[in-house]
Give the backbone structure.
Amino acid sequence: MITRRAAAQLLASTAAAAALGAGPAAAAADKTVVVGVHLPLTGADAQSATLILHGAQLAFDQANDSNAVPGYTFKVKVFDNATATAGQYDPAQAATNARKMVSDPHLVAAIGPEMSGDGKAQAPILSQGDLATITPASTNPDITNPRFAAEFMPAGKAIYFRTVTTDAYQGPEMTMFFSKKLGVKSVYILDDSGAYGVGLADAFEAQAKKIGMKVMGRDRLDPKNSDYSTTLTKIKSINPQALYYGGVDQAGVKLVKQSYQIIPKMIKGGGDGMYAPDILTAAGFPAAEGWYATIAAPHLVGEKQAQGVIQAYTSKYGVEPSDYALTAYDGGLIIIGAVKTLVAEKKPITKATMRDAIGASKTPTLQGVVQFDKNGDMLSHTVSVYQIREDKSKPLSDMIAQYHYLGSAPEA
């Protein structure tokens, strides 16, 4: 934790650097490493985003407390990728934040975004500005797919790194879980019209058709609409075995509530957009009971090596972390490791050198050693499956208690 005295010294040194017209290497000159954290901290996504923010912040606070890089202090600069008008994440605001981060001469790396729609808006700007970002939760595969490099990586080098896998694995592997573990032979698919939701639903649907699972229909939900009863009544009338939803919790909360009223017995599941505290607190029980959800990462909160971090997180913030709070912590470890490497090699700490150091890193994290391919994707592709089961002895918002881990999804 930065003390008041240290914070005052930090502000003074930053102001002095600015007065001298410091350039992109200023972070190294004043021995302050500024990291942007950009997440949707307003509206429907705020609870899950705040958990992620705290995971990243904890990594840097611990690095400062332990003097992890002697002589260097990490400072987090927070950006809100959501707006009240959108009621959730807002790609236009995310693009504005990307421009702010790129133009900040002191900011040399970032953690975020949470949402793939934001990532699609930000990636071209970050690429042109040489600013590496590590997303702990954004899973749309297009952003790091070399087929779309001209759109999302126009400057030619990877800048969009992940501590999670992509929906190219998350969607199909949930299809296999539905088929192999739950015996589902027919399904109806919904999405929320966002880049993440559509891409995830597309991936699930393609795999369903590939293995012979009958897709009995597909519809798109408007996140701002309040009533989905017409769509759900139609689904009830054709009676598929299961419902799959690709999307986040602005529409997801309403879907959970209304589907419980209209199709309470149907198998229901979704991706990591349904792994969120709002599903527990805003939709509540019994409506949320039984829903399945995946995350595009290992089940870190159950791992022995994560227990010390979980305890520190809970002590500091008064709430249990989500798995994506821990993948954000891992992102922080990777950035800290990249700074260590540059200091050891006596290289300046700039946007470009950080980008290259992150891309080449092999960092020990809570999920093991993380390495990236040439496009910025992790080399491991674990997808974890959960089911919501109410634990009345714990708070509704306690994701560790209410989301019961079922295991890794079968590979597609």
In short: Residues 323-344 form the longest helix (22 residues). The mean pLDDT is 92. The first strand starts at residue 32 and ends at 39. DSSP finds 15 helices and 16 strands in the chain.
